[in-house]
Amino acid sequence: MHRQLPRKDQHLVLVLALSFLLGMVMALAVYFSWSLRLVPPGLQTFFRTGALVVCPPFLLAYVLGATTSSDFALVLTVGTIIFANAFLYAGVAAGLYFVVTVLMRGKK
Fold this sequence. Notes:
Blueprint lengths: L6 H29 L8 H11 L4 H8 L4 H37 L1
Helix pairs in contact: 1-4
């Protein structure tokens, strides 16, 4: 049987799904701009700082840079970066959703 979720739970699921997707997109954007060398050499330091702000698991890419011995290691590291960032975004969104719902409930 299909059970309908309450309206407030539907909003939470939507927020979590969108933030998870946003986290994956941000991680992919950071990784591809890093691997394709789309950033000019003069902006490398600024890019690294920005990449770590929007995708903290990108720190693993520095470890990968020194030990790229196989394609399997590359796939595992990039997959870890993408999913770690997605779960990080979803966790932050869940915390913010909780705070907003508590504050909204207090105003009523």
